[in-house]
Amino acid sequence: MPRPVRRDVFEPARGGSDNRMETAIAARIEKLPWARLEESLWQFGYSRTTRLLTARQCAELVELYPRRERFRSRIEMERFRFGAGDYQYFAEPLPEAVQALRTAAYSHLAPIANRWMEALGLPERYPAELAELAAACRRLGQTKPTPLLLHYEAGGYNCLHQDLYGDLAFPFQMVCFLSRAGIDYTGGELLLVEQRPRAQSVGEAVAADQGEAVIFTTRYRPVRGARGFYRGQMRHGVSRIRSGTRYTLGVIFHDAR
Fold first, then answer.
1. Residue 8 lies in a domain
2. CATH of the domain at 78
3. What's the whole-model pTM score?
């Protein structure tokens, strides 16, 4: 398990822009029913949003996939026994839509993350702004951007895993669905599996429409037990694609080594 993050690694930092696309995406995120989303995160470890990206914005992100200069790394899942499919990590600068999603969602998720840490009795606390989290990552040697595009064809899938990348791991991440379920592809549900102490694991299969996102825990959620809260470990993956082609955008808030 990653070691606790010291509070003193977080220092003020500046960043961000205010172009029209970022403003529009930030407005959609601002209008989300955050109280209801937080309730779902506490209860299930995930929540599903309304549409955050337009169909055009989804298509523009998919069109970036063949442009290798926009990415820092490509992973063939079968080579590493991660599943069947491939994904690419964006290089800096991130596309505007990705940066907008990452920045706006983080500011709403950071307070929830801190409430989770408090409930679990853990020392980590997360800053209010994404730029401050990025600065903390740099001080711990985590300098590589982690947002990524994932691509699956029929028969593809992703094994259960956690996206940690270093000692500093923000408690939440997002996946945005860029393809149309039931039209561009069938199957391919987001899988979330929670390991329960001295009991069998419990899983959920989550589907979403194009432009919608699912927010879920990076590694564990607070679960209320007889003696207070304990850490319910969770992993995520993707069920097998039955037909068609599926693209998704993964938005991870902490950076990688």
1. no
2. 2.60.120.620
3. 0.92
Peptide bond into 93 cis (omega under 30): yes
pLDDT digits (tens, 9 = 90+) for 185-235: 999 999 999 998 888 999 999 999 999 999 999 999 999 998 899 999 999
Buried-state track 140-154, b at ≥16 Cβ within 10 A, e below 16: bebebbbbbbbbbeb
The pLDDT tens digits for 107-161 are 999 999 999 999 999 999 999 999 999 999 999 999 999 999 999 999 999 999 9
Average pLDDT over residues 75-81: 98
Q: Evaluate the CA torsion angle 138, 141, 144, 150 in order and state its sign.
A: negative
Domain count of the fold of the chain:
1
Nearest partner of 176 among 17, 36, 61, 37, judged by Cα: 61
How many alpha carbons lie under 13 Å from residue 206 in its C-beta half-sphere? 24
Q: Residue 78 domain-assigned?
A: yes
- CB distance 237 to 216 below 8 Å: no
Q: Which two tokens stand for residue 132?
A: 């401050």
Q: In whole angstroms, what is the distance from residue 122 CA to residue 105 CA?
A: 23
* Domain membership of residue 76 as a residue range: 17-252
pLDDT at 5: 44
| H-state helical runs in the chain | 20-30, 34-44, 55-63, 96-120, 130-139
